[in-house]
Amino acid sequence: MKRGATTLEGILLVDKPAGMTSHDVVAIVRRATGEGRVGHAGTLDPMATGLLVVLVGPYTRLEPYLSGARKSYRARILFGAETDTDDAEGAVVRTAPVADAVRDPAFAAVMLAATTGHSMQMPPAYSAIKVGGRVAHRAARAGEALELAQRPIEVYEATLVSVDPVTPSWDVDYEVSKGTYVRALARDLGRSCGTAAHLGALRRTASGALSLADTHTLEAIEAAAGDGRIEQIFTDPIAALGLPVHDADATDLANGRSIPYDPTSAASESDLVAVETDGVLAGVYRVHTDRLVPVVVLVTGGAL
Predict the structure, then answer these.
(1) Does the residue 39 lie in any domain?
(2) Residue 5 lies in a domain
């Protein structure tokens, strides 16, 4: 199929395999669907697996409203060494003895509890952050570490799943804010425990209202596209956004104008609302007094 603009529009939940970039996943979906407008919300490192939200067609415009969601992960933290990338793919840059306390689940639970809440995090040197127009990971590979600034993050939950005293390692379930590097959490946790640590494995289990349980493998997506049933595995975009929903008449959507809104509804001033008509997502709108002002318009009255 020639790649270009198709009539496809939707959200695909992909179970990304290890060893593949998020861009690689996007390229596979482009080839399978023939749709050139494909993107993703919330990057996963090549080592990481799990939920990757892929946007197809006009739905690529929803990326800002899906990337900012809370993320949940299952992480494996390996103690005894730090790496230059803060994960298992990097070169070891520091080793340190591991105290017996690190092998104690009670100690692990206490240390993890201390990491929850708001904090300032130093991003990994190997990251996609730009400083003066330069990308951090490219500069690091060229032997020049950029001066990165700490960023505010929040760890909502850090729950101990298990401790392997032999490795030694901890398996931890995290729920974190947008922009949180779990690699950096592992690095900093090792230092807090008086040793060194890095991220050994990472699997994203949720992003906002979206769950790993609803994902599809790349092989299943390619098969569905080949059989002409790709739209059957798109996820519900309204549920994916997790926003208050307003049902509008098709005539209200003409020309992308603002539409009437009851100010006593759940959404407050400046809040975002998902507008639907006949069960179809029409767009994302912002509350402004007694009107909804369009932010992203996917369906207009004339298109129905």
Answers:
(1) yes
(2) no
Domain total for the chain? Answer: 3
How far, in Å, CA of 9 to CA of 303, rounded? 14
Rounded Cα distance between 106 and 25, Å, is 40
Q: What is the DSSP letter of 175?
A: E
Global confidence as pTM: 0.90
Q: 15, 45, 86, 87: which one is catalytic?
A: 45
- pLDDT for 247-262, tens place per residue? 998 888 877 789 988 8
Is residue 200 a part of any domain in this protein? yes
Q: Which of 207, 226, 252 is the last residue of a domain?
A: 207
CATH code (residue 54)? 3.30.2350.10
Residues 35 and 150 in one domain: no
Do both 199 and 247 map to the same domain? no
For 159-172, the pLDDT digits (tens) are: 999 999 999 999 99
252 given a catalytic annotation: no
Query: What's the order of all strands across the beta sheet hosting 280-288?
Result: 245-247, 272-277, 280-288, 291-297, 259-260
Residue 12 burial by Cβ neighbours in a 10 Å radius (0-12, 13-18, 19+):
buried
Q: Is the dihedral of CA 74, 63, 33, 210 positive or negative?
A: positive
Residues 6+ apart with CB under 8 A from 110: none
